[in-house]
Write a structure and sequence with these properties.
By secondary structure, the chain is of the alpha/beta class. The chain has a domain of 260 residues: Rossmann fold, CATH 3.40.50. The protein is built from 18 helices and 14 strands. Strand 11 and strand 12 form a beta hairpin. The termini are far apart. It binds pyridoxal-5'-phosphate. The site of pyridoxal-5'-phosphate has 19 residues, from helix 12 and helix 16.
Length: 458
């Protein structure tokens, strides 16, 4: 390992992995299955057919195929913005005076600005292949909506995006970007769906939530011909698509003989984290490494660290299949002064199982400290990170400082999921010192969240 490590550990175009890594196939103890909320039996392909694309359903339920081929028509699109850089953070290491080696996998080089395009493109590709003409989806902070708008424009599909109302007001440029790529954007809750009208009837001034926008998008898809619903996180097929992140990172590391000791990702619904860790976790489960995996979530929406491991709905209107996951309850809505994204109430079921079984650690961070870390990183490395990504930066810095204290030369990899150019209002709040840290009390969690968990006896 005498080879000098370059700042960017690029892969050549023909070294981009041509298959996704299906982590479940490598787990002896599988996550609990999705359940039909009526029968409480595991869902079948037929149950999901009215809502999701066929291939997404197949992938969602596939827990045995280890590697799933990325179709050539999709690889071609991936090559327009991949491989994503794997960067040695030499300047951050120096700023921290740490003996640790820090690397980040940077997913913000495409216009949508995050890793979400990896799954958006896959889902649009399959929708087109099966002859659909349009898709619906929800978006919270706007990254997923932007990614889907780009993907639908590329593959020639119509798209309706239900955007959480408060986000559509706080992030007008996200809205504009989505519309520029040709999608129809509806602030949620809206009066265009029954789910939206029901929520507005209870609280006309609601800020909206991801769970509520999901309900609207699902309803619209089911009621429209040749239309299906797509989701940008939480579900297993989304994690599968995001495994391109980990596959590339591992291929680049292998080229240089580098083995990470710690892999860190921010966690909203879990897709980038699950994708980043997938091949490394596969090896750990086979006893081939002892990597520490760390999920970092906001203290204001702490699904792993304070949630319950229970069957819950994916949406507020309680229409989705039941998912066994760490959850704050489908009724949980994070405080509106929370600017850092990652506001989903639950966590992907594969990651939930890995956390339950002790293969994954989790920690929660408050947003002012997350922004401190973001700015330290931006000043050292030049990239303005997304607030979401900055949760991972915070943990990577803490681990690097711990290495300084103990004088250990660990290799740290974290996922830099995106850029923060559309999040300037959050940075403005930070700069103006009006950003506050809100941590829900146990009573808050009980009242708004856990009380909404389905009362199923399983
Ligand atoms: C959506 C998003 C996340 C969180 O979603 P996951 O599914 O948990 O990965 C993280 N970072 C950025 C930049 C995002 O857009």
């Amino acid at each position: 390992m005498s080879k000098k490590i370059p700042t960017r550990l690029y892969l050549a175009e023909d070294e981009i992995p041509s298959s996704w890594f299906n982590l479940r196939a490598f787990m002896k103890d599988k996550p609990d299955p999705l359940l039909h909320p009526g029968t409480l039996k595991p869902v079948t392909e037929d149950d999901l057919a009215p809502v999701f694309c066929k291939e997404a359903i197949k992938q969602e339920l596939d827990e045995t195929t280890p590697f799933i081929n990325i179709p050539e028509g999709l690889q071609a699109f991936y090559r327009a913005y991949r491989p994503a850089p794997l960067v040695r953070a030499y300047f951050l290491e120096k700023a921290l005076e740490t003996p640790a080696e820090i690397y980040y996998k940077f997913e913000g080089t495409n216009t949508s600005g995050s890793h979400k395009l990896n799954s958006a493109a896959a889902q649009a590709y399959y929708a087109k292949e099966e002859g659909l003409v349009s898709l619906t989806t929800e978006t919270g902070a706007g990254q997923w909506g932007s990614a889907m708008a780009m993907a639908c424009a590329f593959y020639g599909l119509g798209l309706t995006v239900y955007m959480v109302k408060i986000s559509s007001e706080q992030k007008p440029y996200r809205k504009a970007l989505i519309e520029t790529y040709g999608a129809r954007l509806i602030p949620s809750p809206s009066n265009t769906t029954e789910a939206g009208r029901n929520i507005l009837a209870v609280d006309p001034n609601t800020a909206g939530s991801l769970g509520c926008a999901i309900s609207e998008a699902v309803e619209a898809a089911v009621k429209t011909d040749k239309c299906r619903y797509v989701l940008g996180s939480v579900l297993n097929h989304v994690l599968l698509h995001q495994s391109i992140i980990g596959q590339e990172a591992k291929a680049a590391f292998d080229k240089y003989g580098i083995k990470p000791d710690i892999v860190i990702g921010c966690a909203g619904g879990g897709s980038n984290l699950g994708g980043l860790i997938a091949p490394f976790m596969g090896e750990r489960l086979a006893g081939k490494n002892n990597i520490r995996f760390i999920a970092v979530e906001p203290a204001s929406c702490p699904s792993f660290t304070r949630g319950k491991y229970a069957y819950d709905f994916g949406d507020t209107a309680k229409t989705t299949p039941l998912i066994k996951m760490y959850t704050l309850g489908n009724g949980f809505i994070p405080s509106s002064n929370h600017a850092g994204g990652l506001r989903y109430h639950g966590m992907n079921s594969i990651l939930s199982k890995l956390y339950r079984d002790g293969h994954l650690e989790a920690r929660a961070e408050v947003q002012t400290e997350v922004f401190d870390a973001a700015i330290k990183f931006a000043k050292a490395e030049g990239i303005l990170p997304a607030p979401e990504s900055s949760h991972a930066i915070k943990a990577a810095i803490d681990e690097a400082l711990e290495c300084k204290r103990t004088n250990e030369k660990k290799v740290i990899l974290f996922g830099l999921t995106g850029t923060g150019y559309f999040d300037m209002s959050a940075y403005m709040a930070y700069n103006a010192k009006t950003m506050t840290d809100y941590i829900p009390t146990d009573e808050d969690l009980e009242r708004t969240g856990f009380a909404s968990l389905p009362k199923v006896d399983l």
